[in-house]
Amino acid sequence: MFRCFPGPCVLLLMLFLDFSEDAWALKKRAPNVDAVSAHYKPLCVYHNYNWTSVEQAKLQDKIRLILTIRDDDVLHSTQPIIAEVKLTDISDYETIHIRYLPVTIDYAANTNETSGFVEITNDDEFRPLIELSKVYRVFVNLHRKSDVYDEKSVIGRVCGPYYVATSGGTKMERARQGIVMRTFKEFYYRNCGWRSGEKYPMDCYAYYLWATGPYTVGAEDGRTKLRALFGFEKTKYHTGKDIAELGGCGLIHADYVRKPGHSFMLLSYDERQQHVWTMEGNYNHRIEIVIRSVRSDWKVGHLLEEHIRLDEVPVESIQADEERMIKTGS
Fold first, then answer.
1. Are 104 and 131 in a shared domain?
2. Are 126 and 235 within one domain?
3. Could you give the number of structural domains in the chain?
4. Has residue 292 been placed in a domain?
5. What was the pLDDT predicted at 124?
6. How far apart are alpha carbons 160 and 139 in whole angstroms?
């Protein structure tokens, strides 16, 4: 009787299969510039997360973009300004909706800096563009009003992208929105070279605890205690294989993921691509939004209503822009 041992080719195939999930896994930073508009002039126009975080918490079926305008070409334009808005629901990230919307500008303000706002609303009630408790990415180009919007009308592109979550009617929906908006603001500030005044180590695990701390039960010193949320029979950890079901049945933005050597926050799941978008602290020493293939060995903490504080979900306090938009090292 002969005992068969695998030959070298079979051993290589077995080794490949063992590591194929990792080898074929997608992991890339989400683009910070719209490829089509990358050659446009970068404007001294910025998204104001201080005001937007507070305003957006009240909105469920629209997105309000609040801009801080310091660009002379925009401030002194003799024609109305139109925003070319490129909107993506990141749970279907290959679909981009483009709208041309007026920018309302406060011309009575300081001549060197003023504010403007743009509202993205549902123009078709049967096919809503903006839905409850969703996460969106927005790229914005500014144009002078024209019959045709192209390279001749464009002034430039707003510093972006702008990430935003819509709210909902439940405590859970409001908490998830507040959590991810905290991280979006920090992501934006870091990419603009500003400091927000928030204090947390550049650490993936600590970043999640900081982001969720004001909203979770059992938090200490503004930091979530994961052992108070997950690991019990009723609220056990899920695996990466459960993300599709969790995302299909409910909300996953602000959920926790642990993989060997790294932690991050879920933002969305794209069923068609079978990818997740994630918010990550200390991704190559930066705060980044990342697109990943789902791994079965992930440990997933799914937030439930009982994890959220009973009192009203806190809204971010507003501080003066001069105190918040301080360039790093200045």
1. yes
2. no
3. 2
4. yes
5. 75
6. 6
Domain that residue 269 falls in: 171-310
pLDDT for the residue 177: 93
Cα 314 to Cα 58, 175, 254, 279: the distances in Å are 12, 8, 16, 21
The pTM score is 0.87
Those residues with Cβ within 8 angstroms of residue 319's Cβ, 6 or more apart along the chain or in another chain = 50, 197
Q: What is the pLDDT of residue 249?
A: 74
Is the bond into 8 cis (omega within 30 degrees of 0)? no
Residues 147, 196 share a domain: no
Tell whether 6 is covered by a domain.
no
**What's the pLDDT score for residue 25?**
78
In Å, what is the CA distance from 258 to each residue of 17, 225, 270? 23, 14, 19
Q: Is 204 exposed, middle or buried (0-12, 13-18, 19+ CB in 10 A)?
A: buried
Q: Are residues 175 and 129 in the same domain?
A: no
Residue with tokens 């079978």: 274
- E strand or H helix at 141: strand 135-144
- The reported pLDDT for the residue numbered 13 is 42
Q: What residue ranges in 208-317 does DSSP mark as E strands?
A: 238-239, 256-259, 262-270, 275-283, 286-293, 299-301
Per-residue b/e over 270-292, b at no fewer than 16 CB within 10 Å? beeeebbbbbbbbbeeebbbbbb
Distance CA 263, CA 20 (A): 22
Give the per-residue pLDDT at 199: 84
CB 134 within 8 A of CB 165: yes
Residue-wise pLDDT tens digits, 291-318: 999 999 999 999 999 999 988 655 544 3
Where the chain has pLDDT below 50, the residues are 1-21, 316-330
Write down the pLDDT at residue 248. Answer: 79
